[in-house]
User: Fold these one by one.
Assistant:
Number 1:
Amino acid sequence: ISMQSIRDLNAGTLDVAIIGLPSRTAGLTVEHILDEPMVVGMSVRHPAAKRRRLTLSNLARDNLYWFDRKQNPAYHEHCERVFARLRFKPARMIEPADYHILLSLVEDGRGIALIPRSLQAVKRSGIVYKELVEGEQLGIGVALAYQAGELSEMVAKFVAFLKERVGTENPQDVLIVSKDHP
C-alpha cells in the first residue's frame, strides 16, 4: 500500500497519504507521526499461546507468514537485517493479501504472523496476540507524505488535524485525501 501511495503522490493523483516507514520517499516531504511495534499473532492452540511475551527465538520452528518484498522493499530489507542479526530463520510462507484470510490461516495453526500492534483490534476467537521482545526493532513507522513545496489549504488543514489527533485516534483509521475527492 505504501509503495502505491508513494507512486500516486509522485504522479500527482494523491495530495497526501499515510505511509509506513521505512519506505523509499525521495522527493516527498515525510512527517513521522508514530511508531507501531510488531506483535505475534498465533493460534490459541499454539504451545506458546499462554506466554505473555515471546522472543523471535521462541518462534524459530514456526512457519511464518511473511509479506512479499515488492510490497515495501525498504521495510522488507530492514526486517531482513533484524532477522539476520538475531539469526531468526523460520520457514516462510507468502502472506495472503487479505488480512482476514491471513487470520483464518493463523487460527487454523498453519503458521504465525508478525503484525503491527494496532491490528490487534481485529478480534478472532481462535487467535491470540503476544508481545514480542523484538517488536520495537521490527516496528513500522507511520508517517504523512506529500509533495514538497506549497500545500493546498485543504491538505495543510488535514495534515494539521491528523498531527493534532494522532494521540487520541486509532492508528488503524487511515485517511487518504485525493485530488479527485475534495
Number 2:
Amino acid sequence: MKNRFFYIIIFFINSAIAQVSDFKDIDFTIADNTAMLYQGSSLENLPLLAHHLTHKLPTDVEKFRAIYTWVCKNIKGDASQDNKVIKKRKKLKNDSLAYIKWNNAYKKTAFKKLLKNKKTMCTGYAYLIKELCFIANIECKIINGYGRSTEANISKLELANHSWNAVKLNNKWYLSDATWSSGYVVNYSLFVPDYNDGYFLTDPVLFAQNHYPSEKKWLLDNALITSEFVASPLVYGETFKHKIITESPKKMQVVYKTNETIVFRFKALQAVKINSVKLITYSGKQEKAFKIENLKNENGLVTFSYAFKRKGHYDVHLKLEDAIVATYTIHVSKS
C-alpha cells in the first residue's frame, strides 16, 4: 500500500455529488496537453511559465487544471526534506511555538531548493500552486492542517503536518492537493511519480477523509464544520481514485463481541463493481478473504455484513477491485 497522509471524517453526503459534478461538462484535454507541452520548463521565470500554461485557455478552471497538472508532473517529492521536518516535529512536539518558529525559517531553504531542483515537500507544492495562480489572476490559498497515514496514524489533532490549496472558481471555493496527486514515497527515500487525479477539485466530504485544516472553515461543508474530528478508518490514495466515502464503522478502532454482526457501509461517488467488494486480512503476505454477507448496492450506497466467530484483534481491509480503500482495527471480545 502506498504511503499517504490521511485524516478521516465521516459525515452526510447530500452535497457530495453536486460538488463533484460542477465541472462535468468541462473537457480538460487541452489544459492537460498544454501542461505536457511545457514539460520540463524552468521555474526561474514564474510569470513566463504561468503565461505559457494559461493564456490560451478560456476558463479559470481550465487554467487551474493546467497549472495543477504541470506542478504535479514536474515537481518531485523530496523525502529528505520531509524526513527532516518529521524529526523536528517529533523533537518539538511539546513546544509548538519553537516548532513553528523553526518551520517558518526552514521554509526559506525549502523554497530555494524547490526553485533550483524542482524538489519539495507539501508546503512547496502548495506555495508553487498559489504563486502560479496569483500570476494567472486566480484566487488561491495555502491551507495548513493535519494528515494521517500508516506512519502518522494519529488519533488526535497535534501539530499541523500537511499543506494543500483552496482555489476560488466561479465564485466558489474548491480543494486540491498537488502533493498527494504527484506520487508517493517508498522506504522514506525514493519518490515514485504516480499522478492521482482524485485529489483535484475533490468533493469536501471525500477530501475530509484525509485532510483536517487548522481553520475549520476550510472544510467547506457546514456538516463537517460543526462536527468533531473522529479517528475514522485509515484510507489510501486508491480511495480517492475510486471516490469512496466510508460510513460504517465510523471509527478505525472498534470493539465488538463474537457473533455480533458488523455492518460495513460506504458511498461510491462513481460506478462500482459490486462483485469486486471484499473484506480481507493478511497472514504474512498471504491474503485471506472473509465470507461477507448481505452485499448490496443501492444507488451507490454499498453495504455488507460480517460477524467474527472468535475473539481476538483483527486488522481488516476493505478491498475494491485490486485496491485497498480502507483499514479497520477490530477487537473482538467474548459474547
